[in-house]
Amino acid sequence: MSKSAYAAAGVDIEAGERAVALMKDSVARTHRSEVLGGLGGFAGFFDAAGLKGYDHPVLATSTDGVGTKVAIAQALDVHDTIGIDLVAMLVDDLVVCGAEPLFVTDYIACGSLDPERIAAIVDGIATGCEEAGAALLGGETAEHPGLLEPDEYDVAGATTGVVERDKILGAGRVRPGDVLVAMGASGLHSNGYSLVRHVLDGAGIGLEQVIPELGKPVGEELLVPTRIYAKDCLALAGAVEVHAMSHITGGGLANNLVRVLPGGLGAVVERSSWSPAPIFGFVGEAGQVTREDLEATLNMGVGMVAVVAPEAADPALALLAERGVPAWVCGRVDNGAEGARLVGEHPVG
């Protein structure tokens, strides 16, 4: 049987249909009660009747990808975690305003559609959605022969959530004396991988090489999924007086913290309050990267910061501990120079 003209051009419709069949169970396990219909339609449906329970519901949305971390997944032929990273980047951006993520849609572009690989990616996305409490409402898988190599792909997505208008968190609520509660990162998360890959290439370090200070192959460490904070942040905002939250992504701790500081206020972050995981020191040493550049690129072990009222700091730490999230007070908001300033030194050892 000869190939169709489209298949001869590099687009396999039958492979696409098989990929959809393989991912159906993954998608189904994320469904909330508001999801109408199943996978395979032209659009996903989410029943908005539940919004009637809000006094003044405001929809929030976020769009993102995982950047060049996909290159590590492709090189190691491990594809079931990159979807977790995608969901984390989406919902953790969304939740900082106090919004509950309702649903996620994804977009996967590939050079050649391998059904099992696509199913593994979507399974990771579904796992992330389960962790975030969001439904995987739909998505698109596109085959781009000639634009991407057969084993290449990229992933992106969007999420939509809802928050009461009078409960939106942000810079307008922040006051002098507020306390910065840091939440530990699981690793590099999904930012700075262009720098990390450049360091590995320059140092001649392969992804399979075991690094003593890491206790594992460097590639395995680089694929540790991004921590999803969405449910923890929502629980925190519902229990104590949270004024703002900052998702620490590209640009590092200081640059992301500035985004939730009002004009006229600054923040001081004490490096002495935590020890970054070994991966950060390894990147710095292997690439002779200065601390300034590391801190301006990587999260340095802090994935999220909650800006809370002073009296809320201890209850916030207790709640996060109960939820298994490593957390500590890392600094304060002050009337000093605008911006976020990292001071002191990290503990040694």
Structural notes for this entry:
Residues 175-339 form the PurM-like C-terminal domain. Belongs to the AIR synthase family. Residues 50-163 form the PurM-like N-terminal domain. Pathway: Purine metabolism; IMP biosynthesis via de novo pathway; 5-amino-1-(5-phospho-D-ribosyl)imidazole from N(2)-formyl-N(1)-(5-phospho-D-ribosyl)glycinamide: step 2/2. This is Phosphoribosylformylglycinamidine cyclo-ligase. The protein is an alpha+beta fold. It folds into two domains: 12-41 and 54-167, 60s Ribosomal Protein L30, Chain: A, CATH 3.30.1330.10; 171-343, Phosphoribosyl-aminoimidazole Synthetase, Chain A, domain 2, CATH 3.90.650. Helices cover 34% and strands 25% of the residues. The protein contains twelve helices and 14 strands. It has helices spanning 5-8, 13-28, 69-76, 82-95, 115-132, 193-203, 218-222, 230-239, 252-257, 278-287, 291-295, 313-322; strands spanning 35-36, 45-46, 57-65, 100-110, 135-143, 153-164, 179-184, 210-211, 216-217, 242-247, 266-270, 302-308, 327-334, 339-343. A six-stranded mixed β-sheet has the order 10-12-7-13-11-14. The model has no long low-confidence stretch (mean pLDDT 92).
